């Protein structure tokens, strides 16, 4: 078998088609090439079938928020070090 043929089959659908045509008997490479071509053929239809339902969700009166860390405390061997938490801006600037 020609190794270039297998190399082309791994690079796209045209190479996969050439591999299917030139193989004398089916093997795992034939099956892989067939999967590539069938996947290429059904992909547009699959994209049309998949839908996501739209839902309206009423938000509470509370404003949206994202929690942030104000302090950094490290632990080493189960002990707190340093004894006082450091502000994040001091850690980032050192």
Describe this structure in words.
The chain has a domain of 47 residues. Strand 2 and strand 3 form a beta hairpin. It is elongated and about 70 Å long. It has a two-stranded antiparallel ribbon. The chain has a two-stranded antiparallel sheet with strand order 2-3. 48% of the residues lie in helices and 9% in strands. The longest helix is centred in the middle third of the chain and has 22 residues. It has 94 residues and is mainly alpha-helical.
Summarize the structure.
Helix content is 48%, strand content 9%. The chain has helices at 3-9, 13-22, 28-49, 88-93; strands at residues 71-72, 75-76, 79-80, 86-87.
Descriptors:
two-stranded antiparallel sheet, mainly alpha, 4 strands, 94 residues
Q: What level of helicity do the residues show? A: 40-55%
The radius of gyration is 29 Å
The biggest beta sheet reads: 2 strands, antiparallel
Assembly status: single chain
Low-confidence stretches: none
Compute the number of strand runs. Answer: 4
Basic shape: elongated
Strand order of the largest sheet: 1-4
Mean pLDDT: 78
What is the rounded distance between the termini?
Answer: 62 Å
Counting helices, strands and paired strands, the structural category is: mainly alpha
Give the ordered list of helices and strands.
HHHEEEEH
Strand content range: 5-15%
Number of helices: 4
Topology of this protein?
Layout: H1 3-9, H2 13-22, H3 28-49, E1 71-72, E2 75-76, E3 79-80, E4 86-87, H4 88-93
Antiparallel strand pairs: 1-4, 2-3
């Amino acid at each position: 078998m020609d190794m270039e043929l297998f190399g082309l089959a791994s690079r796209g659908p045209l190479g996969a088609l050439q591999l299917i045509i030139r193989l004398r008997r089916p093997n795992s490479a034939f099956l892989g090439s067939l999967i590539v071509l069938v996947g290429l053929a059904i992909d547009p239809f699959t994209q049309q079938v998949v839908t996501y339902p739209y839902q309206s969700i009423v938000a509470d009166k509370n404003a949206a928020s994202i929690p942030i860390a104000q302090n950094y405390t490290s632990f080493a061997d189960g002990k707190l070090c340093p004894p006082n938490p450091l502000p994040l801006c001091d850690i980032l600037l050192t």
